[in-house]
Design brief:
By secondary structure, the protein is mostly beta strands. Helices cover about 10% and strands about 25% of the residues. The chain has a single domain (about 5-85), classed as Beta-grasp domain (Ubiquitin-like (UB roll)), CATH 3.10.20.30. It has one helix spanning about 20-25; strands at about 5-10, 45, 55, 70, 75, 80-85. The chain is globular and about 35 Å long. The relative contact order is 0.33. Bound molecules: FE2/S2 (inorganic) cluster.
Length: about 90
Amino acid sequence: MNQRVEEVVTVACEPGESLLSALERQGHRVEYQCRQGYCGACRLSLTEGAQAQALTYLRPPLAWHAENEVLTCCAHSRQPLHLKLI
Ligand code: FES
């Protein structure tokens, strides 16, 4: 039986770079489909205490996400951010 293991990573975006692109640049594999903010496949959880106010959306996403989640394909962070990868 496979067990999913949660990994916490710190990601820092370059100017204009999405969190998803920054994660990929750092060698992490993140699920995605549309890269446009409407499918929700790239949704990740923020760690407790993560600076959610540092997040901005490069374009408004259509997919739903909870307050403690982020759609990485269309979000950008002004400072290093801790995210949970599963
Ligand atoms: S990949 Fe579809 S919402 Fe991010």
